[in-house]
# Entry
Amino acid sequence: MLARGSIVVMEESAQPAVISTRALTKHYGSVPALTELTLEVRPGEIFGFLGPNGAGKSTMIRTLLGFLHPTRGEARVLDLDIVNESVEIRRQTGYLPGGIALYDSLTGEQVLDYLVDMQGREPRRRAELCERLELPGTVLRRKVRDYSRGMRQKVGVVQALQHDPELAILDEPTEGLDPLMQQAFYAILDDLRSAGKTVFFSSHVLSEVERLCDRVAIIRAGRLMAIHDVEDLLTRRRRRVSLRWRGAAPDPTTLPGLEDVIVDGSRIHGTLSGEVSGFVRSIASPNLEDLTIEPASLEEAFLEYYAPEPTDDATPREGNA
Amino acid sequence: MSWRLFLQTMRWFRVRLAVLVLTGIAWGAIMPVIFDAFSDAFRDMANSGAIPESMLNIGSGSLFTMPGTVTLGLQHPLALAMIGVFATGASATAVAGERAQGTLEVLLARPLSRVTLYFSILAALLLASVIVLLAILAGMIGSSAMVGLVGELDLSQMPLVVLNGFGLWAAFTTFGLAASVTFDRPGPAIGLSVAWLLLHYFLEILGSLWTDVAWTQEYSLLHHFNPGEILTGSLEPIDLVIVFAAAVVPLVYALLVFPRRDLAAPA
# Structure
């Protein structure tokens, strides 16, 4: 991870970015919802947009789709301008709103028929999606008003993807899905990535970002805090390490990569950054009695972004963006 | 305009529309019967001075002539309520209701501009309103024929009646839709649309009951739809101009405001 204050540098790519924003800003009256947000989403990647509630994730998505008008800045989706070409953007996009609302008086099947009809494209993937998300015909023939939240969410996922869009924009897509359906949904996104489709999804669930995303942007209070390759983030993340020795613990300064060290008799506790293998090689000793390295999680890595209040001159950090 | 959205909107309306068509036919059918049965009695009451003639009118209508009865039947609160279900109620909830439910976001996620959405919904609302108007007129003509009074109506003028009625209800429909695209919740939009209709009804009735302020009728859109006069061959072209101008103003407003509005988050 680079030091705070460094600037996001966009890589030159042969293909234009699927989503690109330049200093995108949205204010609700005098209240800033997005501030100078600049990012790019590359073709064929799953891009996570991560932030706590109220961070501006949905505002960003709704601005990209033309539901909200940017106060300043510009953005292009599929190389189309979000202000003047939003209809064409939506033609090529599948969108799942957060907490989707459906027409209660229609059946699930009627909702899907209506929406794909309005989309003007064939529902090429509907049957497969319904099968994978366990939405049989008997369920789809029931009125939406009788659906549980999870079933509505599943119909929402199907309506967003049934026409096989070039870009899927999903706002907290696993909300309301049980763990099994979440796994089925993850597999669907994996297949989309394999097919070269681009997925932009917002979430505050770190585990699914870790599981799915190629890159992740972290947003807080409408400001972009960082963009990272998830793989890189996982490699660089800090791990809690505990060691117990027979006899006195060695001098902790001889242990490479260990920080925040606490020596407690024969025990050493600390945090480890970067590769584990070098560290393990350095501590290999017959006197080492026990070693615990806590399972890696992105959560701690992200928490530091959320802890301090952003300042006006805060600039996003860069991973391998 | 999106035909798919138009057809789906008509599908949403179909039950209400069926009920209102039947109710409209029944209401229209009863008017000639009332005229046939009670017009002489009303005339006698008016001539005797027991009740002032103005009290026996509703707006520009009266029970003293068959054309006047047609006007009365179309200006009666019941007829206003029937046509107003679409022109005032459904128009006010059309966009604001979808926005409050969150379904507008799902709908506008399709390749559909807001202008297209507006015109598709407007077309469905106008068609539904005109169908109810036609049902009332059909009931009146059918019933007039049955009681032998159809000869008192110049049916060749009926297209003008429909045109004038269409203009009147288009004015209320575009007003309701303008309110609907202005507010994020249907409550204020419905309130404003109903108040607009009631204001025009009040001005019309006030002027007809109180002859000293008869001028108030000129400010009522309802006063500019007088099928009785049209059916006697005396259509005022200015009436058509007024009602259609009243329809165009909210339409232009909505087309300016709606595409520029931020879509509020669902309730």
